[in-house]
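Troubleshooting log. The previous structure file for this entry was overwritten by mistake, so regenerating from the original sequence record. Sequence copied from the archived sheet and checked twice against the printout by T.R.
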Amino acid sequence: MVITYHGLDFFKLSWGDTVIAFNPVSKSSDYKTSSFGADLAIVSLNDQDFNGWSTLARGDKKPFVINGPGEYEYKGIFVQGFLSYSNYKKQKRINTFYNVTVEDMTVTFLGVPEITELKEHLNMSDVEIDILFIPIGGNGVLEADEASKLAVSLQPKIIIPMHYGFDNNKLPLQTFLKEFGGESVKPVDKLTVKRKDLIDREGEVVVLSQG
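Regenerated output below.
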C-alpha cells in the first residue's frame, strides 16, 4: 500500500488498481489541492474542506462514498465508522472516525474531533491499530499535546500527523514531534508499507510532504 498526502486531512491510499481517498477537499473549499480518481471516498465531517468526493470521479466512474457511522464493505475493504463530535470552525457537528481493514492492516482515521468528545466516544481497546491518522493543529480539533498523548494510548505501529501547517505555522508539528523525541524526523513524499513491514514498528511517526 502506498500513502500520499494532499493537504489538510486529504490522503490517498492505493494498491494495485484500488484507490481510497480520506477527506477529499471540495472545489468550494478555500484550500486548494490535487485531484485524482478513487474507488472509495471516506469522509469524517460534512464540510467543504473534507467532502469533495465529486472531485474523485473520472468519466463514468464515481467513488463509493462513506460519510457517517456504521459498518460497510466494498470490494473486500471493511470499514467501521464511529460517532464522535467536532468543533471545527466553531460549529459543533458530527465527526466520524473510522477503522478500515485493508491489505491485512487496520488503518484508523480520526478525522477532526475534539479531545473531550473523542474520549467519550472512543471505544477501541480491542483494536490493534497499524496506521493511525491523527490531527494535531488545534482550532476546534486536537491540539498537538493532546494528540501525542492520545496516539501513545492507542499504541499504533505507525502514526501519521495531519491537519497542521496553516499559515506556515510549524509549531504544532514541532510540538508533536518533540513529544516523541523525533524532532529530526524528515518529511517523505510517500509511505510504502506492507503488513510484514509493521512487525518491528511501535509508535513510529511518519511525516508526509504535501503532494
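Residues 144-154 form the longest helix (11 residues). Archived copy saved in two places this time.
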